Amino acid sequence: MIRRIAFALLATASIPAILGAPTAHAMAAPALAETIQMDHLSVQVIGKGSPVILIPGLSSPRAVWDGVAPELAKTHSVYLVQVNGFGGDAPGANLGEGLLPGMLADLHKLIADRKIAGAAVVGHSMGGLLALMLAQAHPGDVGKALIVDALPFVGSAFFPGSTVESVKPQAAAMRAQMAGLYGKPLPEAVGQAIASQNALKPESRAQVAAWMAKADMRVSAQAMYEDLQTDLRPQLKDIAAPVTVLVPWTATRGGEAPVLDLYRREYAGAAKVTVQGVGDSGHFIMLDQPEAFRTALTAWLAG
């Protein structure tokens, strides 16, 4: 069970064991200007300037962006998204099906209500998939997208040549396993196994494990299932906004070339895509390589 859950979560985002003190990666967020509560998401808004929307991944809170959000807020209006049910929040409308469509609708409403069409959108893992879905469904909403280790079909990372239908039985089984953890202390071995698949540095793994423990596993289970049942590759051609994809790699896990080749193949249908590697990093690039991530984000925004 541990292996199968960790296997699934590797590409969809993070989750953890016991809430610990902030790691050296984290920076204190500035005072919040406001919080917007929506059906499937909540959004905290800080700073002033051109809009940047930051979307975390599966089971991750908005705190995943603490290393960059305070600096961004000096020159941008920063919209820090969090899925209801993650970060210790109540699940709201996220107990049931249709989580990804619901989140997509909330993001589109946010952009329309705040009049921030053409925003720069950054998404990690499942948040990256949401960013792609937003750019495809509502072309005017996204000026450009920075995708942090996400694929348009996550099944390709684990089951080469698979389809939505072929991974459905595994996705359903993993959903049941994860949902079954709700209301119980997360076994430390499970949290540590997932953390070790998602991050390289000990402090990064501790943070990932802590975040996982605060997530509502019912929401995580359904969101993971829907992620595995979404294949956006045929719709990539409809995305007009430029897309940059940050991909982690390590020498011990095959090196850079094969990983980047996989991502280039999966994103081949996109009209404007750049795939960029970040070495010596796990899935949580912003934790394992905070300086490299900050540099890439700054350059992307400036470009």
What report would you give on this structure?
By secondary structure, the chain is of the alpha/beta class. About 40% of the residues lie in helices and about 15% in strands. An 8-stranded mixed sheet has the order 1-2-4-3-5-6-7-8, with helices on both faces. Strand 1 (about 35) and strand 2 (about 40-45) form a beta hairpin. It is globular, with a radius of gyration of 17 Å. The model is unreliable at about 1-30 (pLDDT under 50).
Gyration radius (Cα, Å) is 17 Å
Helix content: 40-55%
Please summarize the sheet with the most strands: 8 strands, mixed
Order of helices and strands: HEEEHEHEHEHHHHHEHEHH
- The termini sit apart by 44 Å
Number of strands: 8
Structural class: alpha/beta
Helix segment tally: 12
Beta-strand proportion: 15-25%
Give unreliable regions as ranges: 1-30
**pLDDT averaged over residues:** 90
Order of strands in the sheet with most strands: 1-2-4-3-5-6-7-8
Write down the overall geometry: globular
Helix-strand blueprint:
Elements: H1 2-9, E1 34-37, E2 41-46, E3 50-55, H2 69-72, E4 76-83, H3 99-114, E5 119-124, H4 126-137, E6 142-148, H5 155-158, H6 164-179, H7 188-198, H8 202-213, H9 217-228, E7 243-249, H10 256-266, E8 273-279, H11 285-288, H12 290-302
Parallel strand pairs: 3-4, 3-5, 5-6, 6-7, 7-8
Antiparallel strand pairs: 1-2, 2-4
